[in-house]
Amino acid sequence: MFRFLYGSGFFSEVLIFTRFASKARSLGYTVLYDDQAWNYGNVKDYFDYENPKCASSPALLNIKRDNFCTKAHDGNSSDTNSPEIFSLSKSDHVVVDRNCFAEFDRFLKNEIGPEYEKLESTWAFLNQRKELLTLPFNQNLNHKIKHYFDGQSKVLKTLWRPNQHVLNMTATLDKDLRPKLKTKSSFISRFLPNLKESKILSVHYRLGDKIIEIKPNEMSSEPFGIPNAFNKSGRYIRKAVAMASRNRWNLSPESLNLVTISDDIPEAIRQIKEYQNSFDDQLSLNIVAPTPNIYSNLGGAESRNTNLFHGHSQGSYDHVPMEDRIKLGRIFLAEIEWVRRYSDGVICSATSNVCSGLMLLLGSDRVIDDPANNRISTIASVDMRWVPTALPIIPKMFSPIEATKIAQELSMDPQNFIDLSYDFRKES
To answer: Pairing between strand 2-3 and 256-262?
Structure first.
């Protein structure tokens, strides 16, 4: 059983659930959830599920159960090396919750092994030495952990069945956005018939409390060799243009639509247009965003809580009435569902759980390059890679000599797809 707790962001809690559920399912457990204390309401408020046929009463909560955190500390800390913590031979009931994620992270790190850390460290070394500002496309997902990604992706896709409230909002959003999307003009069609009609690139541009919390927090992308991209709209635009180029989308300049999803649409659009205007001879994007108050006829919560649309603040959100929280949550899910359904490409920052969630929803076929099958990724993070844990496994920084040796070893493994074009000899 997984207990949703109070106080975290939507995807923060949901992704922790997918991590636990993915591992539990692989070991043969039936996965239950208890959402009575969730600050977003109930799972059925967003997804198409019936009321649960069982629930944790206060009396049941007091019954002694095996708790993952408790078992992880039984004996000594090395217990977290072994899947026996979850073994059915040990117990047929295990309870986990949000307070457990640090121990579970350590369990996963031990299970993944040192090879993953070696590759992460080598990538970080290369990125720092090249002074890269955006994460290379081939680093979105480490092949060494692809099976962890696929397991979590399967769980999230199973959960992701938006209910009719969310689907109605998604339809309203689509009706609002479609007239704003540009295709090639009839004039261009006449003389350049081979140009594709248009492409939709969705950008999730997180502002609000994430900018504040990122500074002291472990979710900084600095250890990965890439500075954080918050308030750096140029990185998103350049990444979008690069994605169109590497996917060989044969487009007329004005038919690359950049749909912006953000917790502060006015500020996000201002920053993106400000950057584009300084390069308008090179960048000609159609910047699109949802119209304010489009959900009012569906019971949207904008009119009473307009401050929450100018940069998400988890503390402010948690203090509004539950009815409004659910409405705001549905608006958020409708935007994610629209991106999932209609986007040809997605640009985001994996320091945000929303980006990690989008990657899982779209699946590894769209996240990771596969040269053998001539497949190119169509969702990309601008700064941090997808990680299998709640907190990133910070890579060790090797010396140039160590990194050179490791890079040479890794270059022999076609599954690593590591960019080794830089000349190491000068440093070594």
So the answer is: unpaired
